[in-house]
Structures are given as structure tokens and as C-alpha cells.
């Protein structure tokens, strides 16, 4: 660990979350700083049932039920902390936010994702390891509102400047 979070070296660093954590409606919130503009898994469960993937710095993708459901173009540079938030709910719309602002949205299917083992910083297959720092990862069992996301960003951004 370091003062602003956990450093991932891009080769063998990851954190395992327990299975059966995945709510049908939720929010995944984290502060991240990419060292390189490479393809990285920030958050990945078995078979990409749920996954957050940075595609070489050109797209952020949120996978749900094994398929990309939300794609957006990131609005940040490497070596800069960003507050990244994904909200989702089955059979409705999911959203990607950075620094309190919506970047993209997409349809989430009415499919339950259960009993999935999840890793922070690496895909479930062990590929596309994250290179950078990750701090303050929060997982909620409800979709935060845009106002709550903005509040969390403003309340914590001082730590990452």
C-alpha cells in the first residue's frame, strides 16, 4: 500500500473478492491512476460476467452478463487520478461517470449474475493486469444517484491531488 491506494505492477498484483457478492442493482466506485495507456482490467469476475476494462486508454467498457454493455471514451490522461463510477440495475440503464460527470450509458439486461469470483487489478483469466494505483474501492448494493456520485467525488478528491 501507499498513501493514495494500492499499487498494481502490471504483472502479478491483484485482490480477490469473495464469491456471491454481486447485487442485481449496484454501484462500483473507485479512484484509479493509470501509469500506462495499455489495456487493463480494473475489476473482473469469472467469464467477464461483470468487468470494468480500459481498452488501451481509448475506451472504458463495463461488461455485464459477459458482454460489453456500456462503452465510453475516457476524459483523462495517464498518471492522473480519476474518480470512476459504474452504476447498473437489471433491465434498465447503466452509467459510467468520471470525476462526477456522466461519460456514457447503456442497456443492462434482465439477467441475474450470481456466484462469481472477482478480482481487482486483473481479469479472471489472469490477463491484462492493471498497471497503476487504485484507491478507495467501494461497492454498493444500489445504484447511487448522480448527486450522490458528485458528492462522493467532491468529498474525496482532495486525497488524490
TrEMBL record:
A UniProt-annotated Pfam family: Laminin_G_3
Gene3D superfamilies named in the record: 2.60.120.200
Protein's name according to its UniProt entry: LamG-like jellyroll fold domain-containing protein
Classification of source organism: unclassified sequences, metagenomes, ecological metagenomes
Amino acid at each position: 500500500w501507499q498513501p493514495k491506494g494500492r499499487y498494481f505492477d502490471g504483472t502479478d498484483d491483484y485482490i480477490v473478492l469473495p464469491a456471491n457478492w454481486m447485487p442485481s442493482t449496484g454501484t462500483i466506485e473507485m479512484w484509479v491512476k493509470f501509469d500506462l495507456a495499455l489495456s487493463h482490467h480494473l475489476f473482473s469476475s469469472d467469464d467477464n460476467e461483470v468487468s470494468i476494462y480500459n481498452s488501451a486508454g481509448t475506451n472504458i467498457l463495463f461488461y455485464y452478463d459477459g458482454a460489453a454493455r456500456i462503452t465510453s471514451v475516457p476524459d483523462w490522461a495517464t498518471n492522473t487520478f480519476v474518480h470512476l463510477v459504474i452504476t447498473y440495475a437489471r433491465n434498465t440503464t447503466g452509467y459510467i461517470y468520471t470525476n462526477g460527470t456522466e461519460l456514457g450509458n447503456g442497456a443492462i439486461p434482465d439477467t441475474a449474475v450470481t456466484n462469481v469470483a472477482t478480482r481487482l487489478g486483473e481479469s479472471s483469466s489472469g490477463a491484462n493486469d492493471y498497471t497503476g494505483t487504485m484507491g478507495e474501492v467501494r461497492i454498493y448494493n444500489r445504484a447511487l444517484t448522480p448527486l450522490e456520485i458528485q458528492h462522493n467525488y467532491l468529498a474525496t478528491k482532495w486525497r488524490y491531488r
